[in-house]
């Protein structure tokens, strides 16, 4: 019975993703950043527009505190080969530097350990302009990561039924894109969150079958982990609500 329910859930996810792609403007983010924010005197609707460092910060419509870190130059996504060049802006480091906006939007304190950065694979995204999701980590994911012995070598950890590779890095220099540096970057998702004993955990999944490698699934766009109104829903680090993709 559980297997049947799991298959139905996976098919629903696949159908939802396909429906989202059909008739969907995959260049909408670039239109906002490259046209509206770039040409508006106050760079609206972007919260931050840094032409010198080459990135913008845009409040996402999904979630009260979620932001998107977006390059100000045309950059399709995780598969862009320029991301592996040493002189390319470190967008993950830039996104982490702007994390304070998340707590400001939620209206309550959020420890760094409860925050995360995520970029989806080509098949797991709906926009063809690189964007890093900046938001809270799911309470379940935080608990699972803290339970596992994650070192500086890649190891496997299962999260929401998906096989993520995980490793600890001392800092976000060099860029996580360069740390991963896979032959086919397009099928990879990357998630970054602080490690329990310092540094950061990098999480990598690859698109295959019904796994679209959307690392955003590890985030919680309602921030139950720190929302005073929802803390009673969290028991032993597990979010009692449904996973945003219907997987929990």
TrEMBL record:
<comment type="pathway">
    <text>Phospholipid metabolism; CDP-diacylglycerol degradation; phosphatidate from CDP-diacylglycerol: step 1/1.</text>
</comment>
<keyword id="KW-1003">Cell membrane</keyword>
<dbReference type="GO" id="GO:0046342">
    <property type="term" value="P:CDP-diacylglycerol catabolic process"/>
</dbReference>
<keyword id="KW-0443">Lipid metabolism</keyword>
<dbReference type="InterPro" id="IPR036265">
    <property type="entry name" value="HIT-like_sf"/>
</dbReference>
<keyword id="KW-0378">Hydrolase</keyword>
<dbReference type="GO" id="GO:0005886">
    <property type="term" value="C:plasma membrane"/>
</dbReference>
<comment type="pathway">
    <text>Lipid metabolism.</text>
</comment>
<keyword id="KW-0472">Membrane</keyword>
<dbReference type="InterPro" id="IPR003763">
    <property type="entry name" value="CDP-diacylglyc_Pase"/>
</dbReference>
<dbReference type="Pfam" id="PF02611">
    <property type="entry name" value="CDH"/>
</dbReference>
<keyword id="KW-1133">Transmembrane helix</keyword>
<keyword id="KW-1208">Phospholipid metabolism</keyword>
<keyword id="KW-0812">Transmembrane</keyword>
<keyword id="KW-0594">Phospholipid biosynthesis</keyword>
<protein>
    <recommendedName>
        <fullName>CDP-diacylglycerol pyrophosphatase</fullName>
        <ecNumber>3.6.1.26</ecNumber>
    </recommendedName>
</protein>
<dbReference type="GO" id="GO:0008715">
    <property type="term" value="F:CDP-diacylglycerol diphosphatase activity"/>
</dbReference>
<dbReference type="GO" id="GO:0008654">
    <property type="term" value="P:phospholipid biosynthetic process"/>
</dbReference>
<keyword id="KW-0444">Lipid biosynthesis</keyword>
<comment type="similarity">
    <text>Belongs to the Cdh family.</text>
</comment>
């Amino acid at each position: 019975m559980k297997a049947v329910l799991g298959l139905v859930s996976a098919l629903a996810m696949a159908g939802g993703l396909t429906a989202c792609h059909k008739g969907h403007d995959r260049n909408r983010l670039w239109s906002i950043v490259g046209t509206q924010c770039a040409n508006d005197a106050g760079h609206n609707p972007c919260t931050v527009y840094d032409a010198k460092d080459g990135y913008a910060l845009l409040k996402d419509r999904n979630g009260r505190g979620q932001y998107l870190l977006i390059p100000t130059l045309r950059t399709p996504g995780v598969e862009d080969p320029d991301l592996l060049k040493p002189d390319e802006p470190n967008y993950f480091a830039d996104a982490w530097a702007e994390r304070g906006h998340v707590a400001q939007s939620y209206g309550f304190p959020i420890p760094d350990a409860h925050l995360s950065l995520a970029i989806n694979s080509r098949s797991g995204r709906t926009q063809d302009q690189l964007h890093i999701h900046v938001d809270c980590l799911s309470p379940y994911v935080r608990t699972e990561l803290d339970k596992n012995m994650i070192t500086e070598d890649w190891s496997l950890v299962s999260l929401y039924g998906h096989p993520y590779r995980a490793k600890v890095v001392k800092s976000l220099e060099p860029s996580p894109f360069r740390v991963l540096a896979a032959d086919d970057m397009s099928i990879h998702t990357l998630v970054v969150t602080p490690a329990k004993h310092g540094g950061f955990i990098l999480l990598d999944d690859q698109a295959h079958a019904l796994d679209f490698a959307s690392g955003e699934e590890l985030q919680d766009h309602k921030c139950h982990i720190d929302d005073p109104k929802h803390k009673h829903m969290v028991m032993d680090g597990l979010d009692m609500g449904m996973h945003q993709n219907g997987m929990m």
